[in-house]
Amino acid sequence: MIILERIRNKYSEDLKEVELRRSMGLIGDDTYNKLKDDIQKKLSKVDDKLKELNTRYQEVESTIIQHYRRLLLTTVTPEISKLKLSLAKLEEMYRDGKISKEVYEKLKAEIEGVIS
Fold first, then answer.
1. Which of 10, 11, 68, 91 is the right S-S partner for 43, CB 3.0 to 4.6 Å?
2. What is the distance between the alpha carbons of residues 97 and 59, in angstroms, rounded to a whole number?
3. Integer CA distances (angstroms), 32 to 12, 56, 80, 99, 115, in order
4. Cα atoms in the Cβ-side hemisphere of radius 13 Å centred on 89
5. Distances (CA, A) of 76 to 68, 79, 89, 115
């Protein structure tokens, strides 16, 4: 997603540059309109992809949180070793970038609350 955000920022800067060139008289209206339309189409595609990825990311985070909550709720007498294993898996997912820091911290606090 960071790469897409950088691409979006680059297209935004390109659009400003085209507008500046037009205002300085370096390019004509036809060239300006063509360049502007082309950049705006690319920018729109990147924005759509970013929205799609953000939606998917939120769905995955929600699913992970629900899974861990079910795990904690279904474990009536939680075995410390299982919870420590879950904590280790959670830390691994965070290190691998599969979950965000916020999700990691929430779930870690819940698991540690049950362990202690």
1. 11
2. 15
3. 15, 36, 66, 43, 64
4. 11
5. 14, 9, 20, 13
Residue pLDDT, tens place only, 53-107 = 999 989 998 888 888 877 766 655 557 778 888 889 999 999 998 888 988 998 8
Place 8 in a pLDDT band, splitting at 50, 70 and 90.
Answer: very high
At 84, list the tokens.
């420590």
User: Which structure tokens are listed for 63?
Assistant: 């699913």
Is residue 22 within 8 A of residue 29, CB to CB? The reply is: yes
Is 5 within 8 Å of 36 (Cβ atoms)? no
Q: What is the pTM of this model?
A: 0.55
Tokens standing for residue 91? 């830390």
d(CA 55, CA 98): 15
